[in-house]
Structures are given as C-alpha cells and as structure tokens.
Amino acid sequence: MALQFKTYILIIPHLFTLSVFSAPDITDIPAPGGAGGHIKGGAGGNPHVVDGGSDYAKPEIETHFLGKWVLETADVRVSAMQLQLMPNDQVIWYDATSLGPSARKLEPEGTCPINPDANNQPDCYAHAVAYDWKTKKSRTIVLSGEPWCSSGNLWPNGNMVATGGTFTGVKAVRMLPMNDLNANFIEKRNVLGDYRWYATNQILEDGSSLVVGGREAFSYEIVPPSLEFKPNKIDFPFLKQTCTPGKGPNKFIENNLYPFVFLLPDGNVFVFANDRAVTFKPLTGEILQEHPVLPGGSRNYPPSGSSAILPFKLSADNKHPLNVEVVICGGNKPDAFEVVDAKHVKEKVFVPALKDCHRIHPMKKHAKWEPEQDMPTPRIMGDLLHLPTGDLIMINGAKKGTSGWEDATDPNFTPLLYQPYKPMGSRFKELNPTKIARMYHSSSAMLPDTNVLVCGSNPHQFYTVNVEFPTEWRVEKFSPPYLDPKLDNQRPVIYAKGTDKVLKYGKPFKIAASLPSNEPMVLGEIKVTMLYPPFTTHGFSQNQRMIVPTLTDIVGNVITALAPPSGKIAPPGYYILYVNRLGVPGTGIWVHIE
C-alpha cells in the first residue's frame, strides 16, 4: 500500500572506485525467524505521524536512551573550519592558511611549501587533514590559496572540490582526488567568475555545482566537475536586496552570507538569505516565486543558522517526492552582530539567540509561513544533520551572540533530536550533553556507522589555548538514541555481496540484508534511506540531501527498491545507503547513482 510522507526544509539560524564495507558471502546470511521487540504506540498506528502519514505499518521500536559521547582522539591539532566526508571514508577538514600556524606540522618533517598568503614565505604547518574515521588516524594535506570561509561539494566521481575563500583563494578551485589516499589538493586560482568568500554550493542535476553569493558578490555561477572551465557568472540582485548595509569601511553586517540553497525536485532552486527566499531557474536566474518575509530576525551569517531539506520520500510510482516543505528556526536579531563584533563596538553585547520556528511549502503557489514548535533553547551556529532514520539532529553552537571572532558565548552543549513528523509539542527532544564547547568554526558529519563525528571550534583569530573557549582539536563521536545497545538485535545488517552498489536512475536495485534477531524482514517494517554527504561549515551543511526510495518487494533476505527517477531529486554521485527496521538503522554502505 502507498504510505504518505511529508518533506520539509529546516533552517535554524546561523574513473571512480566504489568503497564498501567488508561482509560475509550472501550464503552466510542467517535464515529469518524469531520474535519481535518492544514497540511504542497502540493498535491505532504509529505515533511518528503527521496528517496521517507514516514510514511504517506499525509503531517504531522504543528506547529511552538519550545518546552517548565518546572522545575519539585528542590531538589532531588542526581545527575543522570546513569539513567533507568522502566516499573513501576519509573526513577532510581544513582551516585558514593566512592566520598563522596551526598546532601540527606538515608531514614528513621538512615539508614547507611557499604560502602565498603569508608573504610568500615557507610554511611548515598543516592547515588541512584527512581523518580516517574507521582507524582514527590522520594525515596532513598540503593546501594553498587561502580557503578561509570557503564552500565545497563532491564531484560525481567522488573527488572533493573546494571553491573560493579569500586573498589568493577568493576565485580559486581546489580538488582532492578520492582514489589517492596520499594526495594533496590540486589548485587553480583566479578561475571563478566572482569573489566567493562565504558562498554556498549546491549540486545540480547534471553534477555541476551552483556557487551562490559571497561577500560583496551579488551573483552566482555554475561550476562543472572539472578544473578546466570558463567562468559563468550570473548577476543575482536578490542577494544585494537582502544584504544589510555596513556601518563604514570594513564594518560589514550583511546577515545574508552562506545563504541556504536547495535544489528542488523540479530542477529549480530555492535560496533563503537573511529573512526571505526566492525560487529561481539556475540556468538563467529568472525568479519564479518570491516568498514572504519571515519576521522575527535574521537567519544567515553572521546570525548563523543551519538548514536542511528534509527527506524526499518518493511516491509509489517513483515519480516525485510526496511533499516539500521548509522549516526555519532560531537566528538572532538583525542588529545582533553590530552590537557584539569588535569592528563595531568596544563593549560587546551578546544578544540571546531566537528559538522560534516556522514552515513554508516553497513549491505551492501563494505559500505562507506557518508556525512550528519552538526549540527548547536558543541556538546559533548549530549543525543540522540528517539521521539515517529520517529524523534530524541539531548539534554544536551557542545560545547568545553571533558568528565571528569571540562574538558568541553560552555554549549549547545539548544536542536536539528533531522529529518533524511527530505531533506538535513533541518534535524536539533534548539528548545527553557534551562537555566540550563547540563554538564558531566547529563542524560535524553523519558517518556510515550511524554515529555523528564532531570536531573543530576556534572562535579566535589565531590558535588560542588557556582561555574559556580554546581552539579545539579533540574529535568526538555522538551516538544518537537509536544506537542504544539494547536495540542491537533489531539493527539491520547490509551485505555488500548481493547488494547493488551502482544504481541507475529509475531502475530497480537489490539490497541484501538481515536482522541479527533472525526475524523476517517485511514490507511496512523496513525503510531504506540514502544520504548525500554534505560539505559543512559555519552551521550549514551544503548539498545535504536524504532520499527515501520506494520499496517494491522483500523476498527472504533481499530488498528490492527503485532508484530515484532523476538527478533533480538525487544529483549524481555517492550516497550512504542505510536500512532501518521500525526506526532502528544499521551501518550503511556507499552506493553510486548515475
């Protein structure tokens, strides 16, 4: 039977090689059988429902586990201003190259390339690392052409690209190959069409990236997955209209940097900047719809929110998502930056962040903002990440101030579970807090093992220790509630042998899986999700996208699903595929869609 499901966007202020997990031969999968687990809800259906929609035909498995924090490593010693998980299971993060040394030297000893943003002097310090989340080991990466406050994405072949920054990197494109675990960034300078400092990227249906905005860059451009291209700048007056004017030379306010940008399932693009949004055609810049102003405050950098387009659950005929909706929470007042930043005032005033939330249907004509449940606490600079279940997690950030050097205080240590399909009043749940403040320039990533990797935080111009909020190089993992050890016998296991790892648009594909409990997998109890790994910086996860493909059959230990119909819904490239049973996900594997 067809199940209804809603899709939202949540905005909260502020040659390829497949990499797969090892698995036993498919003939080793245990035969189904056995008993069920404790579930919540009654005979009337699943409480994880809104407007009658549900992902499952019975209630989800219940847990009272509020998550667990684990310190993974204490001394990577390069802060994570920008972060990207790659399909080779390397987490790449990097910092600025013009703001002095990091706490780690390049390897091997004696590697000291010329730094064009440090008076062309030799620079022996690392500003980028590759962290293997499986082994907890890291290596240094040579990076040049200042990438401070840049943007990024993956190419369809899995290579990472970083665009813009400032100084010599303001028009640069840098590429890190996926298939060479010892590679450094390959850089081409002065190739972009405009200055891309604090810009946002969004993958388009053909694998090109839309690069939107930047400081005093009221334009966007389309960058192909190649280092060889001609600049393609398109003026975009909307960005100038939403830019709060500065108060003098070098006294920027803006409130619309790192705009929230999403590819809609019709191929058009939704962009939210400051306090309003438009939908436009990416190839021409034609504005298709102007959305109402969202009252209450500013939502982008420096009030710095987070944003996500909620999962696209595909229709039974696999032609379209069942709904598209935008949610915005928090932020800060329009003047919050100018009363706290040292370029504007001598005495800092840390304005409490907002915690209000609102929704809108961007693809509906005459759409209006609708009230959503408030967050339990205010938050700026928080990362909003998709969980394999289709829920989201808000993590990192602060309760007062804005982004900027030493412009925030009162860390928000408590992650929030956001379940947008639950009844109003029960959509946010506070989880176990960390003890490490993750302030300005912190990052996070959802991993294939369903944990959240958390790193970074450097609210200072230079690496600084022995202060209230020091530069952080400790790396943590947070285990969300679904990783309750009591649920391990309900956690699906995917078998790489027997699972299709190269998907074709609109075509059926197979997933070999089983349950440790030996219970049979049945339609109505199994959900498959596909996560596009985002480039995360400044509280926004660029390109983040989750697809819930249509399932057509489960026979024994093999699930049959339909690949998304086009690149408008699922841009080409690598995704992490997860299997869930009644809200309990198992470790995912990398798949590629084309």
UniProtKB/TrEMBL annotation:
Keywords: Signal
Domain Glyoxal oxidase N-terminal: 81-482
Domain of life of the native organism: Eukaryota
Domain Galactose oxidase-like Early set: 491-593
Ranges that cross the membrane: none
Entries under InterPro entries matching the protein: Gal_Oxase/kelch_b-propeller, Gal_Oxidase_central_sf, Glyoxal_oxidase_N, GO-like_E_set, Ig-like_fold, Ig_E-set
CDD domains in the cross-refs: E_set_GO_C
Signal peptide extent: 1-22
Pfam assignment, any one: Glyoxal_oxid_N
PANTHER family xrefs: GALACTOSE OXIDASE, SECRETED PROTEIN-RELATED
UniProt protein name: Galactose oxidase
